[in-house]
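Exercise 7 asks you to align residues with tokens for two separate proteins.
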Amino acid sequence: MSDEQGEQAAEPLRTADEVELREAEEPEVDDSKSGPADREVSGPFDAAEVPAMRPYVDLGGIKVAPREGLQLRLEVDERANRVVAVSLEYAESLLQVQAFAAPKTTGLWHGVRGELAQQMTSQGASVTEEDGPLGPELLVVTTAPAEQGGSRTVRFVAVDGPRWMLRGVVMGKAVTDAAVRERVFDVFRELVVVRGDQPMPPSELLPLRVPAGVQAERKDAQGGAQPA
């Protein structure tokens, strides 16, 4: 074999090595906090940011400010026998919220949003990222069961606070009607997250409880935290 032929044979090997190295690189994850610039004064709030005397419905990890026309129910994981989400019906819409533990100086929503988009896309949903008043949102369109026909559209929103992330799933009229969505976001921004002082791993659900007089809707383990 001539020197020239040897160089030609070696060239594809170098190219393959370069491609393999590029594929092995881990994508960078944005761990900065996501949320509106005025979160501390306009919400959603941390428990340390609101007056103690203001009336709230205390659900443990989340407190809800009462308002006319707002209906509240709790989603319960029947197998684990625990509350996993708070559902708020308002303005012909449904807002389902959950609060999660997070690091003190970094956020979860940018990473969680990417994982959620990938999961929904793999299940055949159409996923679009939009920039909203709370920060980046995911608009997800899924095909409804055959017996129902059509499709279902939901919005995923979230805000990173001090040592927590509050996530909301918007359903109903507020998904497509901007004026109604603004009213529903007002409800979201009035919520208070009670992180507590106990150590918790990132992304662990903050514990919720059922207060007297509040309806709890029991769900199976798979369906408890998913949009209805």
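Second protein for Exercise 7:
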Amino acid sequence: MENRSKHTAFIKAEAQRLGFMSCGISKAGFLEEEAPRLESWLNKNMHGEMQYMENYFDKRLDPTKLVEGSKSVISLLLNYYPHELQNEESYKISKYAYGRDYHFVIKDKLKEFMHVIQEQIGEVNGRAFVDSAPILDKAWAAKSGLGWIGKHSNLLSKKAGSFYFIAELVVDLDLEYDTPVTDHCGSCTACIDACPTQAIVEPYKVDGSKCISYFTIELKNEIPEYAKSQLDDWMFGCDVCQDVCPWNRFSKAHSESLFNPNPKLLTYDKKQWEEITQEVFSEIFRKSAVKRTKFSGLKRNIDALKKQP
């Protein structure tokens, strides 16, 4: 009992030292409430062409199937809210993609975290996850008391809104567990009312196949004609539901220098984006998450926007 308390305190202090905004811990096991929700969402084809969402259904709901002998899920939040926003006369990029690709930034922090845990506590086995394996990170973060799932289906915290990444360490270590917080969305429907494509089909349910982020990032084919007029000047991702959320009034700028963007990203206007070359794309988005769409994908998105009145 004393060890659990000591280990938990050490892990939370270490998370802070590594620059994470918050750390919450849950007992690893099957996510009973999420199972029927995920099944219904998939059955309604709300994942569109994101076939990977259909894979590893059981593992997605139970981290003990991902990490043998695991006992705890350590959930971590890392702030990415930028110091400066893009030029207002610009095609827009989701704030999470302004700087260095978060997968690499967080993976490095998690490797160090795991190393320190093993060094201090002894033989601890586990795995680090950053949005790259079948784990329901928002559900675990909510279970660990780091926030509640908002009507836009993002994790929300009273202190920090929603502009942060979520990551996990799943470990075979017994720890003290946190409890969920209450929902503070109340009667607010700002995110539902503002969504340009009506992707939030009902409170707490997003049709992924209607989301601007889906059209501009996940969709590999041409953007359908009907969607082009609804893209609201977003060329990569979309932040509308987060931008209008009252809880994001409390967002503070991050302190991770790797998330600072190339200055051109902030100053370019629409005309400059329309004339972007492969060379400039590689310079502005070196080591960025935007590379996921490749130059051809970003160009496709810009062309779709350019044709709109």
